[in-house]
Amino acid sequence: MKLTLGTPPVEVYGVYDTGSELVWTQCAPCPSCTVLKFPMFDPFKSRTYNKIYCNSVQCNEYFVSCSPQSLCAYYYFYYDSSITSGVIASDIASFISTDGEIRIKDFLFGCGHNDHLRFSDGNIMGIIGFDQGPLSLVSQIGNRFGGRRFTQCLVSPYVDNHIAGTINFGANIEAFGGRVVTTPLITRQSTPHYFVILKGVSVGNNFLPFNPTQQQSEGYMMLDSGTPSTLLPLELYNMLVQELRLQVGEESIEYHLEYTRSICFRSTQFPQGPILTFHFEGADVELMPSQTYFTIQEGVFCFGMHGVTQEPYVFGNLAQSSLLIRFDLDRRTISFQPTDCTKL
């Protein structure tokens, strides 16, 4: 996602992330940061840049750290071991929407002076946090679009990588036509993440409950666009893999990837099935093979889900691709609609 910061404006390219709050970018000076293909934001060159001091209202309300220069400081650690640390500042932010340019004065963001991005290829300068926390982009935009709601449509990784996904603020998902299913947005333990209730997963017509060996018949899933894989309770995942092996009918192998083992299949063509259905409360969401498998080499297709022994359980961005998803923070709902995101 692209936005601009400062005066004169500097383009910032960040990962759209519904699983975190802070909007941050690498800032000069940053001698140990990931090497970028674009000029990083230099606060000394922006006429509208403002430092946030430790004794300010903003710092006392959202942060507790303080730099040696008495500036409001932050430190973030991500699931993939990426880190960022720096200072909180404010400046003018702007981005392009379907309604034209949107400008936000006194936009609070993280200016990272010590960052390590494991996911960056040199094009990514930071993270665009989109959860429900007060510092996220959607929260700082507020009600200027008639309410706190937005839609996302993530493009499948199997189409032209020059085609971008879309994010619309205030959009009405029903206006796009087609079948829409809706599930409640759950508030949990005062966390700002987007949680929904999952009752189970069907492989074809075979239903697998969320937690088959315990009385807990349903559980919480977090929608996180920043996590590639879907993370499921280990027992559910093991049953899912067992059922996949039966239904796919191809040779299965295990690959040791960077963080975990993945179940993979050898095949001369992309897997044709089965369809997986995630049974959220009041909303059945079907996932096609292009939303559940990824390719690691020619003829080898790996299952894009993993089993974990503890929360959070995550509905990741591969599963979210080719779905128009509306997050309505006012009505406390999340809606899903199968969509060719390349045509929006």
Automatic annotation (TrEMBL):
Give the keywords, sorted.
Aspartyl protease, Glycoprotein, Hydrolase, Protease
Q: Where is the Peptidase A1 domain?
A: 1-337
Q: Give the Gene3D superfamilies listed for this entry.
A: Acid Proteases
The family database entries (Pfam families) matched by this protein are listed as: TAXi_C, TAXi_N
- Note the CDD domains from the entry: pepsin_A_like_plant (cd05476)
A GO cellular component entry from the record: extracellular region
One BP term from GO: proteolysis
Q: Which GO terms fall under molecular function for this chain's record?
A: aspartic-type endopeptidase activity
Return the PROSITE patterns for the record.
PEPTIDASE_A1
**Record's keyword annotation contains Glycoprotein:** yes
UniProt xrefs under SUPFAM superfamilies = Acid proteases
User: Is Zinc-finger one of the keywords?
Assistant: no
Give the family per the record. Belongs to the peptidase A1 family.
Protein name in UniProt: Aspartic proteinase nepenthesin-1
Species: Cajanus cajan (Pigeon pea)
